[in-house]
Write a structure and sequence with these properties.
Largest sheet: 2 strands, antiparallel
Shape: globular
Number of helices: 23
Order of helices and strands: HEEHHHHHHHHHHHHHHEEHHHHHHHH
Distance between the termini: 43 Å
Strand content: under 5%
Number of strands: 4
Radius of gyration: 24 Å
Strand order of the largest sheet: 1-2
Structural class: mainly alpha
């Protein structure tokens, strides 16, 4: 066996070990809890769950709102990625679009709900500026807006990352073949991204399906399964067995997602050469994409603009006077700096460990001779971690590691975050690595590079530096 393959297999087993201990074990214990009824094993929790009209309605509502928001999100993310990658808009403007699109992902989801309330509520900032309330924020409309804003950054990153590897020379070939505008668009912009579009759709759906923060603030009477789970687990009378059964039912989308991802694998592409070519000029295309992109990111920015207004108001919306009272009160709170510092440390360690783990998994999946089962296992892990709600994963960690040396430590928070947020960086890394030339490792070996040096250079290529460029006259 080639030395490089041995090292990559070592990476695979390291990734497998981490997820065996910090995903499979906790979820197995949670699954065991779902079969416990009054200290005895049985299907009572599942029977009660399926016989509950409230659960069935919340599950149906979750599928409906998540499906609609995922479809809308994927379409908008594709439009924004197309504007960034395939138009003649000024480079700074394209960077502005990309930056503004991913900006919301740095905020917790419960913030989205309150931003929508303060923007579109009866006394919201936008409602007062525009003189009317455009939709009822509590229920389907508010959830749809919140979910779309929440999932656009992730879908955009996936599509944008792949679109950067699409060979622009195909545009010239399509024109030479006499294709019309629609056929050219479908063949050069949509067809190469079918697999990624499917992954973005699945990712958006599962993020919406499992989110708790947005429905907790603006769900209203439109019950979703995440709220049902919260009421079971952390309600007035906690029912861990019933909650575990609900949590297991929420893994159903992961099974469907694994099947879809395996099916869409056939549509992934790889170029031996990625050619640099100037974008064909089109004022109409650039005007439509520029105006549309501004409309989308402007709407998103308008929703969050209230966050920079309300904190400086004495008592919104009744006393609209400039005041720093809120800031002074918050900054004078004892322990604030300590809490903020703890959050930064957890975030930093999560980023470092998560990057190593996700890149290692992507490397093992995309650039190794591992069998179909092993690569499918990594994809399955990615889908499952994306499907499991953070609250469920936290409770699973509670069952698994209470009384161990990990209890009440920074490390357990970091590990939980790494597992929970594994999917998106893994999918981005895998998508980029799959599009690199198959001869990358062989070329590096011929040049005398070590495996570690090849790995580092591959990481640079994974940041969208093409393997090989050619000028097309």
């Amino acid at each position: 066996m080639h030395k490089t393959q041995i090292e990559i297999r070592g990476v695979f087993w390291a990734v497998a070990l981490v997820f065996s201990v910090f995903l499979v074990l906790p979820m197995a214990l949670l699954l065991g809890k779902s079969f416990l009824v009054g200290g005895e094993s049985g299907l009572g929790n599942y029977t009660a769950m399926l016989a509950s009209p409230a659960f069935l309605e919340s599950f149906r509502n979750s599928f409906l709102i998540s499906g609609i928001s995922a479809a809308l999100t994927t379409a908008l993310a594709f439009f924004l990625a197309y504007a960034v990658n395939n138009t003649g808009l000024p480079p700074l403007f394209r960077k502005f679009i990309a930056g503004m699109t991913v900006a919301p992902m740095f905020l917790p989801t419960i913030t989205y709900g309150f931003a929508i309330i303060y923007s579109f509520g009866k006394q919201g900032l936008l409602t007062r500026l525009l003189g009317r309330q455009f939709f009822d924020i509590y229920g389907f409309g508010g959830l749809l807006v919140g979910y779309v804003i929440y999932t656009i950054p992730v879908a955009f990153l996936l599509i944008h990352n792949t679109m950067g590897f699409v060979d622009k020379k195909t545009l010239t070939v399509s024109k030479v073949m006499g294709d019309g505008p629609v056929r050219t668009f479908l063949g050069t912009a949509v067809r190469p991204l079918v697999g990624t579009l499917g992954a973005a759709l699945i990712q958006s759906f599962t993020l919406s399906f499992t989110d708790f923060g947005i429905p907790a603030s603006i769900g209203g009477s439109f019950d979703v399964v995440a709220i049902h789970l919260y009421n079971e687990m952390l309600g007035a009378i906690p029912n861990f067995g019933g909650g575990a059964a609900v949590a297991v039912s929420m893994l159903l989308p992961s099974i469907i997602s694994i099947l879809l991802i395996n099916y869409l694998e056939r549509y992934n592409f790889r170029y031996n050469r990625i050619c640099r070519q100037d974008i064909v000029k089109s004022r109409l295309r650039d005007a439509v994409c520029g105006a549309g992109s501004l409309a989308v990111i402007g709407t998103i920015a308008a929703v969050f603009a209230v966050m920079f207004v309300v904190p400086f108001v004495r008592n919104w919306p009744y006393e609209v006077e400039f005041s720093l009272e809120r800031f002074m009160r918050i900054l004078s709170s004892r322990g604030l700096l300590s809490i903020y510092g703890n959050s930064l440390w957890v975030a930093l360690l999560t980023a470092l460990l998560g990057t190593l783990l996700s890149y290692g998994a992507a490397l093992a999946s995309a650039r190794s001779g591992l069998g179909r089962v092993a690569r499918g296992a990594i994809d399955g892990i990615a889908v499952v971690t994306n499907t499991i709600p953070g609250m469920v994963l936290g409770l699973a960690f509670l069952f698994a590691f209470t009384g161990t040396s990990l209890q009440n430590t920074f490390l357990i928070l970091v590990l939980c975050n790494v597992v929970h947020f594994f999917t998106t960086p893994y999918l981005m890394g895998k998508s980029s690595l799959e599009k690199m030339n198959k001869g990358w490792e062989a070329t590096a070996a011929l040049m005398g590079d070590s495996w570690l040096k090849t790995l580092c250079r591959g990481g640079c290529s994974n940041t969208r530096i093409p393997l090989q460029l050619c000028d097309v006259g």
